[in-house]
């Protein structure tokens, strides 16, 4: 009976190995799949950020426009690398881990088959014991039962050896697969991050070399440029005609007003057109 | 009236600048916040992966255990850097963009105030026109209306200058903020990715140097070691006593069976205990 117990212990140990692998690989697979999904979400947000940056760039001053477009291109590159990362994770990490489920099922089927053989052996053994107690003198029946036990036992031995091979191969594969899958995982991640460093360095240089001053002068010229001639001129100059010399016309702080009173209406119209055009450009 | 129209055009251009900035900064803020949130989710999955790896390591063979624990430590470091990345993005990118909303509100309030002053100027102007048509000879009333127009016009001029300053400052700030926020964004990202490359390189080395062979021998010794003495021995040897010399006992391929028949029961028991202990260790 000790041999049966020992075999039973082995089978339970093998089952435990396979069940534990099934559980662990399943959980690792679902977590690595979640990692891949979250990475894909990050890529989606990145894609939207690229679009938004291009839109913002379109309505900004010339230098900033060029700067933001370059940054958007770099961000788009990062998303391309992220897409490659997602595809590689799916092919080299998630895929193999999913396939692993099939292997585990096969090994569990082997174990089940062995258990049936083992159970048959035990039954033959019990039958023999009963016969020995019931009719100890019936040599022919006992000899037949002994033969049955012998055959069942040989079956069990052979199945044990097969199981041994299967579980050894399974364990070897498991160790190698864990190593391979995680080596692929960290390699894929490392390569992505290395590419991202490269691209973000370029974006850093682009943004660092942007100088807002030129754009600011451009903005001021557009908003205040031609319009500046009239901006501080009191309406009264145009409506009421030239100052009549009364003391009330001379207002403290309105010096610029009088200096700029020479602007003519056609220039004002041009400025207005310019502003309208600019405004339409922004809404564009 | 051209001056009024020109001012109106300026105000609309300024409003367009501010409204466009409000819209763009709002959208950038929400996208960068989404990027930060998705990064935080990736960190959460990473944390769960670290825990799972430590659990898996605990039930694996010695060398793989050490390897997986080192990889888990590296993965944990990446999550720490990711946490720092999330905090820095919140402080240096999302925070400033949110504050920007307040600045935009202030500028819009300035523009609203200017519009009121401008509307008052226009009303005074219309009143003067009416009086001139109704009672062109009433010099006193017309003179009073002219004074009102003059005051309103001076008010409008002063407010225009204030608005000019406000919008110039706003635009300068906007250009610098866009540069600053994106420079901070790409710098924070770049630093994170650089750290990640470092850590994943270390994990690559750890995993690359793992050799499953020693662990496999360890596994075989545990499952088949002591138990191996009985595994292929037919049960009949123990139950039926030594072979009786009958030809049926001599089964082809069972040579190992007979060679190993010398294993004793106490050794089997010890192996069984060992296996049970190991099984409990796996469930642990």
From TrEMBL, chains A, B:
Localisation: Cytoplasm, Cytoskeleton, Cilium basal body; Cytoplasm, Cytoskeleton, Microtubule organizing center, Centrosome, Centriole
Entry keyword annotation includes Phosphoprotein: no
Lineage: Eukaryota, Metazoa, Chordata, Craniata, Vertebrata
PANTHER family (alphabetical): CBY1-INTERACTING BAR DOMAIN-CONTAINING PROTEIN 2, CBY1-INTERACTING BAR DOMAIN-CONTAINING PROTEIN HOMOLOG
Chain residue ranges for the region called Disordered: 237-284
Protein's UniProt keywords contain Cytoplasm: yes
A single Gene Ontology CC term: ciliary basal body
Stated family: Belongs to the CIBAR family.
Composition bias, Basic and acidic residues: 273-284
Keywords tagged on the record: Cell projection, Cilium biogenesis/degradation, Cytoplasm, Cytoskeleton
Alphabetized Gene3D superfamilies for the sequence: Arfaptin homology (AH) domain/BAR domain
CDD domains named among the record's database cross-references: BAR_FAM92
Compositional bias ranges of the Acidic residues kind: 261-272
InterPro entries: AH/BAR_dom_sf, BAR_CBAR1/2, CBAR/FAM92
Alphabetized SUPFAM superfamilies for the sequence: BAR/IMD domain-like
Protein name: CBY1 interacting BAR domain containing 2
Pfam family, one: FAM92
Biased composition (Polar residues): 244-258
A single GO BP: cilium assembly
């Amino acid at each position: 009976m000790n041999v049966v117990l020992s075999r039973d212990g082995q089978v339970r140990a093998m089952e435990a190995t396979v069940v534990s692998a099934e559980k662990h690989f399943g959980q690792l697979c679902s977590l690595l799949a979640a990692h891949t999904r979250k990475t894909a979400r990050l890529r989606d947000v990145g894609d939207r950020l690229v679009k938004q940056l291009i839109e913002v760039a379109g309505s900004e001053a010339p230098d900033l426009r060029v700067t933001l477009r370059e940054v958007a291109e770099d961000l788009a590159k990062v998303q391309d690398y992220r897409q490659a990362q997602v595809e590689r994770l799916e092919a080299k990490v998630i895929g193999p881990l999913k396939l692993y489920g099939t292997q585990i099922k096969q090994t569990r089927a082997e174990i089940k088959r062995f258990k049936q053989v083992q159970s048959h052996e035990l039954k033959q053994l019990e039958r023999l014991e009963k016969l020995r107690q019931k009719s100890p003198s019936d040599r022919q029946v006992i000899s037949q039962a002994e033969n049955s036990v012998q055959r069942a036992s040989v079956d069990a031995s052979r199945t044990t050896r097969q199981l041994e091979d299967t579980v050894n191969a399974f364990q070897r594969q498991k160790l190698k697969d864990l190593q391979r899958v995680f080596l692929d995982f960290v390699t894929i991640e490392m390569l992505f991050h290395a590419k991202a460093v490269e691209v973000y360095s370029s974006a850093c240089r682009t943004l660092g070399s942007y100088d807002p001053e030129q754009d600011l002068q451009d903005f001021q010229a557009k908003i205040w440029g031609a319009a500046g001639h009239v901006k501080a001129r009191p309406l009264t100059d145009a409506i009421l005609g030239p100052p009549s010399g009364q003391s009330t016309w001379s207002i403290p702080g309105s010096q610029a007003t009088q200096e700029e009173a020479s602007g003519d209406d056609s220039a004002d119209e041009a400025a207005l057109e310019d502003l309208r055009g600019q405004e339409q450009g922004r809404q564009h």
